[in-house]
Specification:
Largest interface: A-B, 20 and 32 residues
Order of helices and strands of chain B: EEEHEEHEHHHHEHEHEEHH
Order of helices and strands of chain A: HHHHEEEHHHHEHHH
Number of strands of chain B: 10
Bound molecules: adenosine-5'-triphosphate, magnesium ion
Radius of gyration of chain A: 19 Å
Strand order of the largest sheet of chain B: 6-7-8-3-9-10
Largest sheet of chain A: 2 strands, antiparallel
Structural class of chain B: alpha/beta
Radius of gyration of chain B: 17 Å
Distance between the termini of chain B: 36 Å
CATH topology of chain B: Rossmann fold
Strand content of chain B: 25-35%
CATH superfamily of chain B: P-loop containing nucleotide triphosphate hydrolases
CATH class of chain B: Alpha Beta
Number of domains of chain B: 1
Oligomer: heterodimer
Distance between the termini of chain A: 53 Å
Number of helices of chain A: 11
Helix content of chain B: 25-40%
Strand content of chain A: under 5%
Helix content of chain A: over 70%
Largest sheet of chain B: 6 strands, mixed
Chain lengths: 292, 235
């Protein structure tokens, strides 16, 4: 039982991080129908920016988080403007291939500047841990979960209560109709990239703190898993991405906790295959949109 | 108020609008009728800035708007009810109407206009918290019209507002269009229901495979033999 609870705790921490990354995938997909394969690399950049802010900038957790989020927001917007916008009216496969290209570009540019070696993340949070029976909840996990929850509440607020958020929803539903309302599609897409990338940046810092190591290729696997999370939740659906992230995170910790950690990645992708067979539109996804 | 001069629009190699010219004067209802694929929707989309032109000019109150973006044209007072009731189905009725006023900042007047829309379409007031996708076809049509009015347009472009509605509802929609016009909004109405459209229009144009082939007052066209044959099912 305690082993079970411990895995739940670990799963929720890891899952919150996946959920943060998955949100970016799902928001970008929702608005331009592109699987932004470079998203995992934006998360990697976030981890490095956080690393630099803490190590060289001597910043604490929250300032470093903020710096990472802002930097990633800017990088996300630039990627969209430079790489994806020119392809907006071309085929989806062309955009997808470009996304993969951007992903490789970011990975190897980063490697060029910082080298390929794994770095250990500086300690910014206390090592304090709480023991509830034999279940251990450490401070990092609490920070991760609270940060993720705060960001998700913020996102819900932006999407449902602000003008920009409403514009984002309108553009993702029907870009032409949105333009007829006076909504600027280009800037709305930029906002979406900025928010999604900022969340990935936050996830990067959190994961650096959690696993205590970062490297230029660290974005690949979590990126793919977050993508699975987004697909599981129903790509395009924000609540879906949150649920998907938590599910994938928990599943992964359970597989490594009870089975063999060697199989945890395989389990995630097996899960993807199963979802795609059983419910291709995901948990909260729509099959097709009705157009009268 | 709105003047189109020698407008040309292509979809790839398809020449969808061939040198069309038309004028809508302040306070008028002008209708554009024509068969399927004649280019009616293309005309409205081009006026709204959703389609690019390859030649010609669009003037609003004498000023060229040919190269302005769609949102800039909304700001200048051009509002469109697009073909096929393009509501935002996952959003509530209220949110849909709110988006209609997206560019406006005059909160008090927006509130007033919202009340007016609810007054004009009481069913929308009743359903304001419901997601728009759950509305019936007729209610959705009222919602898009209400939404278009929320921008306080100077000119309202309507693309087949009667499509797919029961005859009783068609009559209601047309009488609402007339009301909106009498309340001071200029209207350009695209319709396949030519008899209804001609009965409320001050003037009309007939579009055939991308060209304007006839124009005149609503009455003139309703009486014309060719129109009778082609669009009104008469002999
Ligand atoms: N996106 C598009 N790509 C290619 N061709 C198009 C596109 N939209 C319209 N067309 C073509 O342009 C012509 C005019 O179409 P348009 O939709 O303007 O006609 P319409 O008069 O509105 O017809 P309807 O009464 O059926 O709505 C048609 O031949 C149509 O096939
Ligand atoms: Mg049409």
């Amino acid at each position: 039982m305690e082993q079970f609870l411990q895995q739940v705790v670990n799963g929720i921490s890891l899952g919150s991080i996946y959920a943060l990354i998955a949100l970016g995938y799902t928001m970008v997909y929702g608005i331009i129908k592109l699987i932004n394969f470079a998203h995992g690399d934006v998360y990697m950049i976030g981890a490095f920016v956080g690393f630099a802010a803490i190590t060289y900038g001597k910043m604490g957790f929250f300032p470093a988080l903020l710096v990472a989020m802002i930097s990633c927001a800017i990088i996300g917007v630039v990627i969209e403007k430079v790489a994806y916008k020119p392809l907006r009216n071309s085929t989806r496969i062309a955009a997808l291939i470009t996304a993969i290209g951007v992903s490789l570009f970011l990975e190897y540019v980063m490697m060029f500047f910082v080298g390929a070696e794994v770095r250990s993340y500086p300690k910014v949070l206390t090592e304090k841990a709480f023991h509830l029976g034999s279940v251990v909840i450490n401070m990092q996990q609490i920070y991760i979960v609270l940060t993720a929850i705060a960001l998700m509440i913020l996102l819900q607020f932006i999407v449902h209560k602000t003008k920009t958020g409403k514009a984002m929803r309108a553009v993702s539903i029907d870009p032409d109709a949105a333009q007829l309302m006076g909504i600027k599609v280009d800037s709305t897409i930029s906002y979406t990239f900025a928010i999604g990338s900022a969340f990935a940046g936050a996830a990067g810092v959190l994961v650096g703190i959690y696993y205590n190591s970062i490297d230029p290729l660290m974005g690949i696997l979590p990126g793919l898993k977050a993508f699975v999370a987004a697909v599981f939740g129903g790509i395009g659906s924000i609540p879906g991405a949150m649920i998907g992230g938590l599910t994938i995170g928990t599943m992964e910790t359970f597989v490594s906790g009870y089975g063999n950690s060697m199989y945890r990645d395989a389990a995630v992708f097996l899960f993807l295959i199963v979802i795609l067979i059983i419910k291709p539109s995901g948990l909260l996804g729509k099959n097709t949109r009705e157009k009268v | 108020m709105l003047e189109i001069k020698n407008l040309n629009v292509y979809y790839g190699v398809i020449h969808a609008l061939k040198d069309i010219s038309l004028t809508v004067n302040e306070g008028e209802i002008v209708t554009l009728i024509g068969a399927n694929g004649a280019g009616k929707t293309t005309t409205l989309r081009t006026i709204s800035g959703l389609n690019k032109t390859t030649g010609g000019e669009i003037l609003l109150e004498g000023k060229a708007i040919t190269y302005l973006s769609a949102p800039e044209r909304v700001k200048l007072g051009i509002s469109q009810v697009p073909e096929g009731r393009r509501i935002f189905p996952e959003m509530t009725v209220f949110e849909n109407l709110e988006l209609g006023a997206y560019l406006r900042k005059d909160k008090n007047n927006i509130k007033k206009d919202l009340e007016n829309v609810y007054q004009r379409f009481p069913i929308l007031a009743e359903r304001r918290r419901q997601t728009a996708g759950t509305l019936s076809g007729g209610e959705q049509q009222m919602l898009v019209m209400g939404r278009a009015l929320m921008s306080r347009p100077r000119i309202l472009l309507l693309d087949e507002p009667s499509m797919g509605l029961a005859p009783l509802l068609v009559r209601e929609i047309f009488s609402i269009i007339k009301d909106i016009n009498e309340a001071g909004t200029t209207i350009l109405l695209v319709e396949q229901n030519a008899s209804m459209a001609l009965s409320i229009a001050h003037r009309a144009y007939v579009l055939e495979t991308g060209s304007i082939v006839m124009s005149g007052t609503g009455e003139e066209l309703a009486r014309s033999n060719e129109i009778q044959k082609a669009y009104l099912g008469g002999e």
